Amino acid sequence: MKKILFYILLIAGALIFLYPFIWMITASITPENQIGNLTFIPNKLTLNSYTQMLGKIPIGRAFINSIIVSSAVTFGVLVFGSMVGYALSRLEFKGRNLIFYIIIFTMTLPFQITLIPQYIIMVKFGWVDTYWALIVPYLMNALGIIMFRQYFKSIPQDLIDAARLDGCGEIKIIFKILWPNSIPALITIGIITFMASWNEVLWPLIVIRDSQLMTMPQLVTLFAVGGAAESQLGVKLAAATMLALPIVLAYLFFQQYFIQSMAATGLKE
Amino acid sequence: MRKQFLVIISSVLIILLLISCGSKSQRKSNQLLYWSSNNTQEIDFAGYIVNEWNKHNNSGKVSFQPVPEGQSSEEIILAAVVGKTTPDVYSNMWQGDVEDYARAGVLVALDTLKGFKDFLYNRCDSSVINEVTSPDGHIYQIPWKINPIMLLYNKRIVSALGFKEPPANYDEFNHASEKYKEENIDSHGYVKKWFGYSEVLVTWWQRFFDFYPLYLAASNGAPLVKNYKAAFDNKYAVEVFSFLRNLYEHNYFAKERLSARQDVFLSGIIATRFTGSWEILHTEKFKPEGFEYGFTHIPVPDDHQGPVFTYGDPKNVVIFKTCSNPQLAWDFIHFMIDKKNDLKLSELTNQLPRRKGLIKDSAFAEYFEKNPKMIEFAKQSEYVRGTDPYPNLTEVFDIISQEYEECVIYGKKSPEEAIHEAAKQVNLLYIK
Amino acid sequence: MKTKKFIPYFLVAPYIFHFLLFVAFPVVFSIVLTFHEWNIISPMKYIGLANYTRLFQDKFFSQSLVNTIIFLVIHIPLQIIIALFLAEVLNQKIKFRGFFRAAFFLPVIVSGVVVTILWQQLYGFDTGLFNKILTAIGLGRIGWLVDPSWAMPSIAIMATWKNVGLYIILFLVGLQTVPVHYYEAADLEGATHWQKFFKITLPMINPTIFMVVVLSTIGGFSLFIEPYVMTGGGPLNSTLSAVLYIYKQGFFYYHMGYSATLGLFFALLILSVVAIQKKFIEKDK
C-alpha cells in the first residue's frame, strides 16, 4: 500500500515537471479564444496559431541560423579543444603550466566584465549582423579543453608511440588515434557545447539586429516581448513549441548522453 | 600529415563560406539609396515617388527599400550607423534621435545645401524651424510628416451620457468617466467598461500617448528640456500626473492590459482613447453597423487659456554623411515633399505633412472634403510639438516613465514628489 | 625533425590568440572603458571617476543587488532541499527510474525563453493556472508578476523548477559515492533514517552541496532572459537583475562606459561572493 502511494506521489512529481510542456503543445493547437479554459484536452484542434506565426516571423530561417551557428561552434570546440587538450596532456613544452592556469582563470571569469568590450570588438571588426560575431567568440571553450585534457591522459601511451613509429604527425595522432578512442568525451563535450550554443540568447540580442540573421531563441524572445504577436497567446505558444522541439527531440533520442554530460560537467568543477 | 592539413583547411574554408553568406553585400555608389519606413502605405508612397523621380530625372537614379526588419527601426538605424551601412536618405527618423546622430557627426548639415533654407521657410512656420534647429545652429533634419495625438471618442456613448460636446477639460472628463462607470459596474463591484484607456506600460515611448500630449496641451507647448536642464518641474506636469493618477485610482481607466482582447474601442468597452489619425483606416475597416466616432483635442486643466497643443509624433528626413552626393539627395527630397507630393502623401497614407496653413490651402481642399475626419487633425496641426533638440531623450522619457509607474499607476508617490524626482534625475543625466 | 619541437606551440596558438582577443584584451579594455563616456558613434570622452561616483549613488543599481539577494535567498535553499529530496528518492530501487529522471531533467535542456513564456501564462492574474487553482480552493488571487513583493519570488520559483533536474543528477552522483558499508554500520547501531541522513549523507556530499550553491549563485547573478521577457524589470523595478541593468545601460541608452563599470563591479562581486561561500561552506561541514 505504501508503495502505491509512493509511486502516485512520484508520478505527481513528474507531472509537475511535464505538465507545462504538455499544456504548451495542446494550447498551441487550440483556437485562441478557448485557451483560457484549457486544462488537458482541447475541444477543437486548429493549426491557426502556427500558420499565423509562420507568416509573422522567419522562424525557418532562424532555425537554420541556429543550426549553422551551433554546429560551427561545436565543431570548433571539438577540434580546437582536442588540439589544446592533447598538447597539455601529452606533450612537454615550456609554458604548459602557464597555459593551464590561464584556462582555469577564464573559467572563473564572470561574463559580465567581457560583455561590453566583446561587443565593441565586433563593431570594430565589422562583424555586427554577421555569423562571425555569433561563432568566433565561442570557438574556444575552457571547460572543453579541460575535459579533453583529462580524458586524453587516460589514453595508453603505447598507442601514441606506435603511431609515431609509423610516421604519424601530431595532427594525425589527434584525429586518427585519439578521437576514435575518445567517443564518450566527444559526445559529452559535443552535447554540452551544442546545447549551450543553441540556447544562448543574450549575445545574439547584442550583436544581431537584422531579423534574417537572428537565432531561433533570439527570434522567439523578441516575438514574445515585442508587439508582433499582437497579444495572440496561441501564436506565442506556437513559437515557443517550435523552439523547444529540436532540443526535445534530440533529448528523447540521446537522453542517456545528455544526462551523463551534465553529470560530467559537475564532476569537473 | 599533408592530408590532415588539407582536411582541416577545407573544413575551415567551408565554414568561412557559410559565414560569408551572412555578411552584408556592397552597395553601388552611382545610385541613391532611400530607406522608407516599413508601413505598407508608406511603402506604396515611396514606390510612387521613386518611380516618378526616375522617370523625369537623369541627374541620378534612386532605388528604395523599406528599412530592414528588426526589433525596432531605431535599432536598425543605429546598427547601420555603427556598421557604416547607412542609406543615403532616410525618411522615418524620429525627431528625438536626430540630435544624438548629429553630435556623432553622421548627418549632413542641410542648411549648407543649395535651396534648402528657402524651401524650409516656405514650408514651415518659425516655431517648427526653431524646433528642428540644433543648439549648434545647424539644421540636420527636414520636417516631413506628423500624426497629432488627439482624443478619439465614441459619439453615441458621449451623447448618451448627456454631453452635447465631448469633454474638453479635466473636470468634464472626470464627470463623464464617473457617469460611465456607474452605468457599467456589476453586482460584485467589478467595472466592465471604462471611459478611456492608456497602456500601463513603463516603456519610454508609451508616454507619447498619455503624459506627453497632456503636458503639451496643459502648458501650451512648453518644452521638457531646455538649456540642458529639466523644464517640466512645473504645475502643468503636476496637474497632468494628478489627473492621470486620479483616473486610475477611481478605475476610470483600466489597470489591466485590455489590448489582449479584441479591439475594445470598437466593441464599446472603452469610450475614448488618445490616438492619431492612423486609427481612421483601421476603424473604417472594422467598425460595426451604426458606429459613430470623432476626434477632438486632448483634455486640458479647467483653468486653461489659449489653443490646445499636442504631441505630433513627427517623422523627419535626414541625409547620412555616407552619401556621396548630398546635393542630389536634397533635390530628391525636395521633390518628395513639394506640395503636389505632400498631397499624394495624405491621399495614400492618411497622414499630414508638416506644412503650414494646410486648412486654408486650396490644393488640399478637395482632400479634406473627401476625408472630413482629417479636418480636426489639420486644425490641430497648427498647434503641434515634436521633441526638444537635445540628446538622450530616450532616457528622459524613461526617467519620467519610472516616476509615472510609481505615482500614476501604483499611487506610491504624490505627483509633486514624482515630478520633482524626475526633474532631479534628468538634471543629473545632463551634468555628465 | 626540427618542426616537432614547435608542434605544441602550433597546437595551442589558436587558443592563445583567441584568449588574447576575447579575454585578455576585453578585461583590460573594460577597465579602461570605466573611466570614459562613450556611446559608440561619437569619440570616447575621458571622465575620470565619474562612472564610479554614479554607481554608488545609483538607486537602480542598489535595487538590482537587493533583487539578486532576494532571488538567491529563495532559490538556493529551495533548490537544495527539493533536489536532494528527489535525488534520495531516485537513489532507491524504483521501477522506471529512467523515466522519472528524464522527466525531472527535461526543463534543464529546454531554452529559458520557452520556460519563461510558459510560466508567464501560469502566473497570469486572471487566466493563469495558479490563480485558478487558488480561487478553486477558496483562496484569493496572487499578483504573481504584478505585485512588486511577489514578482522576484515568482521568478525564483520558476528558476528552481527549471534547474532542479540538473542538481538532482549532481546529487545522485554525489550520493552514489557514499560507501554503502557506512549505512550498514549505522543500521547495526540502530540509527534512524534521519540520523543516517544528517550524520553520514550530508557530510559526505558536502562538496556537491557546495557546487550546487556556487552554480546557483552564479546563475542568480546571471539572471537575464527571465526578467527581460516576463516583466521587463518591473513592477517598480522589483525584478531588475544585474545583467538586465547592464544590458539596459549599454544597449538601450548606449552608455558604454557606465555599463562597463557596472559589469566590472558585478564581476568582482561574484568572485568575492563565491570566495566567501568557499570559506564558509567547505570549512563549516
Short description:
The complex is a heterotrimer of chains A (269), B (432) and C (285). With 432 residues, chain B is of the alpha/beta class.
Structure in words:
The complex is a heterotrimer of chains A (269), B (432) and C (285). With 269 residues, chain A is mostly helical. Chain A has a domain at 69-215 and 248-268: Orthogonal Bundle (MetI-like fold), CATH 1.10.3720.10. Chain A has 13 helices and no strands. In chain A, α10 runs antiparallel to α13. Chain B has helices spanning 2-21, 40-56, 73-83, 95-104, 116-123, 126-132, 155-160, 170-183, 211-219, 235-249, 278-286, 326-336, 339-349, 362-370, 373-380, 393-409, 415-431, and strands spanning 32-36, 62-66, 89-94, 142-146, 150-154, 225-226, 229-230, 272-275, 293-296, 310-311, 315-319, 352-353, 384-385. In chain C, α3 packs parallel to α7 (151-175), α3 (59-91) packs antiparallel against α10 (206-221) and α4 (97-109) packs across α7 (151-175). The interface between B and C is medium-sized, with 22 and 19 residues.
Structure classification of chain A: mainly alpha
Number of helical segments with 4 or more residues of chain A = 13
Stretches of chain A where pLDDT falls below 50 for ≥5 residues?
Answer: none
Q: Which stretches of chain B are poorly predicted, pLDDT < 50 over at least 5 residues?
A: 19-27
Largest sheet strand order of chain B: 2-1-3-11-4-12
Work out the radius of gyration of chain B: 24 Å
Number of helices of chain B: 17
Please tell me the overall pLDDT of chain A: 84
The main sheet of chain B comes to: 6 strands, mixed
In the CATH hierarchy, the third-tier topology of one domain in chain A is known as MetI-like fold
Mean pLDDT of chain B: 87
CATH class of the largest domain in chain B: Alpha Beta
Tell me the name of the CATH class of one domain in chain A. Mainly Alpha
